[in-house]
Amino acid sequence: MPDSDAPPADQLRCPAAGAGLLPDELRAWMILLAATGAVEQRLRSVVKEALDVSHDEFLILCLLAEQPRTGLRMTQVADLLGRPKTRLTYQVACLQRAGLVTRRSVCGDRRGVQVALTDKARDLLGETSALLAGTVRQALADSMGPDQRAAMCALVPELPDPDEEPSGD
Fold it and tell me: Which residue, among 162, 158, 63, has the nearest Cα to 117 in the 3D structure?
């Protein structure tokens, strides 16, 4: 009988795992990238269907959702997401046309632009958050073994371990 803690046959693995060529830090980084890729791949279609935005636009919405209602400057968004400002300008324009963000000039800085979520975006994110969180949880569960999930949960304390039952609190 197979070991119940054995990772799934299709689990993503670090290409150099076990070869001894990479130090632990690089091996861990590769595993993290593989897990991130698995999550992004699953989220792309769910985000498009549920929110009718691209994955990159979804990342902007998520970033703004964690900010005060006043939003952030475009340069801050670009820096936090590691995106070129020119690409970000296009994505924010798409979100604005969809009624999901607002843009306004920053008082006292003629070049500064502040971007913030609209109530429509907040409602939409609230309505789809359980679906999106479940998609991430399942992608991580499918791409990691129990030890890797435990390590991920230790890095992100708010991330519940999918093997644990939710508390009734």
Answer: 63
If you ran DSSP here, which 8-state letter would residue 121 be given? Answer: H
> Is the distance from CB of 116 to CB of 71 less than 8 angstroms?
yes
Three-state DSSP at 67 gives coil
Cα distance between residue 122 and residue 127, in whole Å? 9
Confirm whether pTM is higher than 0.85.
no
- pLDDT digits over 84-128, tens only? 888 899 999 999 999 999 999 877 777 788 999 999 999 999 999
Amino acid letter, residue 86: T
Whole-number Å distance between alpha carbons of 8 and 162:
15
- Are 103 and 96 a contacting pair, CB within 8 Å? yes
